[in-house]
Amino acid sequence: MDVKQALPELADIQLVIFDCDGVLIDSEGLSKRELLILLSNLGVDITDSYFETHFLGHSFEHVTAKIYQDFDVSLPATFRPEYQKALIAAFTAELQPTSGLTDMLDALAVPRCIATSSSPTRVGHAMSVTGLERYFAPHIFTASQVENGKPAPDLFLHAAKNMGVDTQHCLVIEDSPAGVQAAKAANMQVIRFAGASHMGPWRRAVDPLSDDVTTISQWQNLYSLAPALTNTMKSRGNRG
């Protein structure tokens, strides 16, 4: 079983909160490609490592502030619309769910929702083009609904409150350090998903991390860790 740093137990989970980019959808490579192109046009050249360290899992507002802090460049008002347009086009042409996701979701026997740093427009389009809308709508929460984005716990707390589940009964599935930090700050159980393509270089690196987080790289590993989450004899469709 391809699981690293397995937790002693995933206890009494009543809600699974999924991050979107890099967890449900294999989007981080597309997002990075389009962002780096637009930044390069402004004379800002960043490395893959910089993107993963400073942008992965964060909101656009965080990205804007970080670019100003580190490169003394203010992104023009046209930047975000141009980035959104480029992403929508890339998502329409290339976006896919992460491998094995729909089989896992079909067997998931507890309620689920999304808590993402993406904009409502971006996540809505992603759900539409990948066919994942049926699994999650209308339970999709974005950073635009809270004061502080990840790594603050606000978004996960907002999701749990709206879903009517106490924090200790929530399992968050994240890929980014910011998301993991936010889940821990919200007093929720958390698993790192390393199955998306952008996590390939990280899979060996995540093993020695000292954050005490279980890492899985295949969706079927989730039910190996927490068999109570699945009920293959009873499908509940779009639960909520």
From TrEMBL:
Q: Which cofactor does it need?
A: Mg(2+)
Domain of life the protein comes from = Bacteria
> Pfam families under this entry?
Hydrolase (PF00702)
- Keyword Magnesium appears in the UniProt entry: yes
EC number from the UniProt entry: 3.1.3.-
Q: Which CDD domains match?
A: HAD_BPGM_like
Q: Which UniProt keywords apply?
A: Hydrolase, Magnesium, Metal-binding
User: A GO molecular function for this record?
Assistant: hydrolase activity
Q: Which family does it belong to?
A: Belongs to the HAD-like hydrolase superfamily. CbbY/CbbZ/Gph/YieH family.
Under the heading NCBIfam families, the entry gives:
HAD-SF-IA-v3
Protein's recorded name: HAD family hydrolase
Q: Look up and give the organism this protein is from.
A: Paraglaciecola mesophila
